[in-house]
C-alpha cells in the first residue's frame, strides 16, 4: 500500500524546505497554501551558511550555482555579497561573516517549489480529529473542501499567524507579543545612473548597508533586484518606541493599516540631519519617501511551550518555523530557522517516522528559546 503523504500547511520557506527534503528521502507530501497562486515575494533576505548548505545536496547544486541562482544581484553577475564592514551584526549563527548572503525570497521559493505538489487556494478553516482512522486528522478548508490525512501526520508551516495553531490552541496560548520597536520599510526603484552615482560608491559591492545613530536609531539600505535600466532598493528605519504616546508605534493596528502612516513619520525622517551618503539620499527627501511603497512593520514574537507541542504531537499534528517560534523581521532569524527546522524535521521523519518528532522537539526547543531571547534583545 502506498505511503500516505504528509500534509504540510503553508508553502513558505519552511514548508517548501521540509517538502523538498522529504522528497529527497522518498517520502511523499502535499502542501496546502491559502494563496491562489505562487506569490512574487519581491524582497531580499539574509541567508546563513548553516541554513542553506545542508540543502545543496537536496537541490543537487553546488554552493556557487545556488547563490547565483537566488542572489538579489544575480542579474548583475553577483552572488549576494554582504560586506562584514557594511552591517552592524555581521556574524551568522555559524560564526562566519563571509558565509551570509542576500537572497531574493521569490527566487529562493521558486527554486524550492520545483517538483513539489502544492494545492493553491486552500485556506484552512478548521481541524477535526477522525477517531475511526487512528491518529488521523481532517483538514477543512474555507471553500468547503475536506482532506483526510489517514494518520500520516500534519505539519503546520503557515507562519506567525498560523491558522493551524489558532485552531488547536487557546487564544492566550496562540497569541503573539509585539515588541516596543518602531520599524518602517520602504521600497524604491531608481534608475541605473542614480544608483551608480548616489548608492554604489558607498555600498562598495555590498548588497546591504547599515548605520546606527544616537545608539538606538538603525537605518538600513539593501538591494532587492537589478533590472536592465533600474535597481530596486529597500530601506528600513527603526528605533525603540518612545513610551505609550509614540505615534509611530502602533502595536494594535490592523493589517490594512500597515500602509497608512501618520504625518509624524515624514516629519521625523525629514528632521534627520548630518546623514552621510547614501543614507541622505534614502531618508532626507520626504517627497521621495511619500512616493515609496512604505509599510509599518510590527516586531512580533511568540513561542509555544514544549508541553503544548508534545500534546499536539500525540494527535499527529506538528509545527515548524514561525508557526511556533516566531521571530521579528528585524533582529530575528525567522527564514533561517524555518529552513533549519525543515531539513532537520525531514531527517527525523526519514529515520524515525512521525513517532520520533516528540523527541526531536526536545532536542530543538533550546535552539528556539535562544532565538526568541536573541530577537527580543534587538
From TrEMBL:
<keyword id="KW-0560">Oxidoreductase</keyword>
<comment type="similarity">
    <text>Belongs to the paxM FAD-dependent monooxygenase family.</text>
</comment>
<dbReference type="GO" id="GO:0004497">
    <property type="term" value="F:monooxygenase activity"/>
</dbReference>
<feature type="domain" description="FAD-binding">
    <location>
        <begin position="316"/>
        <end position="350"/>
    </location>
</feature>
<protein>
    <submittedName>
        <fullName>Early conidial development-2</fullName>
    </submittedName>
</protein>
<dbReference type="InterPro" id="IPR002938">
    <property type="entry name" value="FAD-bd"/>
</dbReference>
<comment type="pathway">
    <text>Secondary metabolite biosynthesis.</text>
</comment>
<keyword id="KW-0285">Flavoprotein</keyword>
<dbReference type="GO" id="GO:0071949">
    <property type="term" value="F:FAD binding"/>
</dbReference>
<keyword id="KW-0274">FAD</keyword>
<keyword id="KW-0503">Monooxygenase</keyword>
<feature type="domain" description="FAD-binding">
    <location>
        <begin position="5"/>
        <end position="168"/>
    </location>
</feature>
<dbReference type="InterPro" id="IPR036188">
    <property type="entry name" value="FAD/NAD-bd_sf"/>
</dbReference>
<dbReference type="Pfam" id="PF01494">
    <property type="entry name" value="FAD_binding_3"/>
</dbReference>
